[in-house]
Amino acid sequence: MAKFTITVNGKKKTVDVDGDTPLLWALRDSLGLTGTKYGCGEGICGACVVHINKKAERSCSISIKDVEGKSITTIEGLAENPNHPIFKTWIDLEVSQCGYCQPGQIMTLAALLNEKKKPSKKEIEETMNGVLCRCGTYHRIHKAVDKLVEEN
Amino acid sequence: MKKQSRREFIKVVSLSGGGLVLAAFIPAESIFAKPGEEPKIFSPNAFLKIDSNGVVTIIVHRSEMGQGVQTSLPMLVAEELEVDWTQIKIEQADADRKYGSQTTGGSTSIRRNYEPLRAAGAAAREMLIAAAAAKWKVQPADCKAENGFVINKLNGKKIGYGKLADDASKLPVPQNVKLKEPKDFKIIGKKIHRLDTPDKIYGKAKFGIDIVIPGMYYAAVKRPPVFGGMVKNFDASKTKLLNGVKEAVKISSGVAVIANSTWAAFKGKEELLVDWDNGLYANFSSEKIKSKMIEKLNGTGEEIRKEGNPELPITNNAQFLEATFEVPFLAHAPMEPMNCVANVKDGKAELWVATQNPQAAQRDIARQLGLKEENVTIHVTLLGGGFGRRLQTDFAVEAAEISKAAGVPVKLTWSREDDIKHGFYRPPSMHKLNGAIDSDGNLIKFEHHVSAPSIFSQRAGRKIEPKEYDIAEAAWPLEYKIPNIKLSGSLVDTHVPLGYWRAVYQTQNPFAVESFIDELAYLAKKDPFEFRRTMLTEDSRLRKVLELAAEKSDWYKKLEAGKGRGIALSEGFGSFCAQVAEVSIKSQNEFKIDRFICAIDCGIVINPDTVEAQIEGAIAFALSAALKGEITIKNGGVAESNFDDYPILTFEEMPKVEVYIAQNSFPVGGVGEVGMAACPPALCNAIFAAAGKRIRKLPVKLN
User: Fold this and answer.
1) Element (H or E) spanning A11, and its range?
2) ipTM strictly over 0.85?
């Protein structure tokens, strides 16, 4: 075990875990930030997406030792502004069903829209294809993304 | 279900804290109950609480797994209670027989609770009115309830529910409560925003996997590679060298590692050396079960139902068609892997479970641990998807066993690999269909022989009679007017654990039936929509949704070359559904689904937005299976392990979905599953229209 210091949602946090511990489990088990979800552990499903230095990354596939000193934003951090346009659109269009994948969907989209105000259809598809939803909310995510891009 | 008058199921159960607690008796029913079997339990149940501050809390006794019951069930109570919807609070009920059935499956939550929950709200409303009338010394008829207040119609004075709660709780429960006329509904039938959405998108919602209790350890379980296998012995010496690992214990399903984090438990599991007794099935494979199904299909099977004289030879220049259809094993793979928090000590167990079946979890844990049921508390969390997987209680029993063995509270988390490899699978099936078209192009004979393993038989642990064949669910050719029909079935055994997968056998039989009806339409040189329409009576609800879907899809509008439309129908769970798929062929191996049009008649609609969402979701779930889903049995276990080899539909692959809801006042139907059945045949019929290729085996392969 070793101590690692990371910046999460603007605050410095220290966790005492093995260096190979995925960031996902450090966030969930050590820091109690359970908004970031475990879905596959292999970087396939995107439920665990957080922002590392503003980029969308899969927290299940990156070790705590590799994020030391970096700035991490989780869904809880994004939700510090509940009026973020993504949240408002998500509520307007009632996108969520079971809700489990939604933090990953939202964090992935937030990073994309942060980087590019008007991403192309192809860029949207390539990015959002990386977050799986079993309830099938894709149809409404699509509508939400279109609305957000149009309003940007 | 026993028919009951409303008066049988309403009464006040307790008076507490100056508040009003109103109960309803809901007949216990179970999706596992056999037809005609009398419900065993009739228990009183509190569905709403009003405290003296006027806070209205509505208790939700079915599980929220994305289908919206934490909103739609409270809507039923609130409608009759005449309360300000924005002010209500909800509480998820623990497992308790007093609620009647809490089993969230079979598209029953709204269907079974539409009247009882409204009656619960209406009785409370009448009692609050009576309390106000007594206070004002006027007749109840001089008062009305509105928005959380009782209003004196004579002078306009009003008093809040909170101030009436104590008085109201001392009153007798009205016996024949009058429910509102649908025309007076203020909440039911409206697109009401879901109550669970904000917490879910802000990352605050608590699913089972998010629960933390004081002193809790983390656990993972290594299970046998072959279904039915057992632990002979194990060596945990390497596991115990790892940081954070507390211990390893043998439980009934395998070996559990207990650690101070999920990651340590997962790593500890990898380091376990287990000597397995693989049991009888190590050589079992998907191919073996397929050859058994083929063998059975070559026989006659057991007759399940017959109309006319399908055995009589047909001679008058008829055309004949035979086709065989096939679908594989499937896993549920909800996004939230199985998990459970358990604290077992001093002869009591307390669990937090994302379950569709809290009462079964309570029963099974009590049985496994030798506890009394009343000493097993089950708190129901949000479910990160269910789809039938969470009707099973295996993971909750595991967590309870681990907590008991380790003597500490634990959170058990399954890996995705555990989930894919240790599920309860949608069984495979094969279907032989025969049809005859007479010289006028009429369908005069339809035979369907289905061969599949029976979920019911496996669960009951006994042979079942043809009249009990669950494998034949929705295998009859709908309401089509066909003079000669025969339905037969053949069971095959499997050691692979079977389970209810969203819509169950309705994901199998309608694929065969509605694909074959399409083939017969082409054989009869008729339009597939017209062919179906003319076989349905004019007042048929199925015919109306068929016509609605055809109209909305511009059925007769010609598509460009390389595109095609397919249509299919389904009926089930009290609802009727028609779907039109539109596809574009991109290359020899590739196609794109452009859109799905769905017309649904689910009778009275509670929340139209949820109905649409359920259909959109059902189409996505059905398409995952139709396009990609296949679980393969090799060496007695599941070959696939994660979303890389058991892929599901992606964002880009999701077609546009248009949902049209029939407006009528038929009894409330279910919506969680009915959208599943028509989807695969509509898709495959569209592929035929576009590419001239019949798809008779799922998942779809163009070549």
Assistant:
1) strand A11-17
2) yes
